[in-house]
Amino acid sequence: xxxxxxxxxxxxxxxMVALVACKSTxxxxxxxxxxxxxxxxxxxxxxxxxxxxxxxxQTIVFNATVHGSVGLDFELNYDKEFFDCxxxxxxxxxxxxxxxxxxxxxxxxTLTAKKAGTTTITSxxxxxxxxxxxxxYTIVIR
Length: 142
What we know:
Elements: H1 2-24, E1 51-54, E2 59-66, E3 72-77, E4 83-91, E5 105-113, E6 117-127, E7 130-141
Parallel strand pairs: 1-7
Antiparallel strand pairs: 2-5, 3-6, 4-5, 6-7
């Protein structure tokens, strides 16, 4: 009989500790009206020269190679009213970054839609300061 009481008391104590732990680690998450409104964890692919559709919270990623010592550069123009941007640059070959011609980098622009509306994004590849390979993306954000 005494063993049964100790087991019951232990179950109650463990249950109370678990309840307190769950309550203290409550995660506040946004509530969405429908599944379609969930932000995309995967970047949305966009095509130049046509209308592209996004929802607020979805992302677009632009990747490019820049190599300043030979004149290759990349420029991205977007409206800061519609997008937040995270920029990342990594050496293509870190062991050669201090050597002549070793300054090639891979750059990534991650744009996250923050406001509904229609806007454009323009990307340019630059060769020794001259814009070439201009691409215009029309973006409709809902």
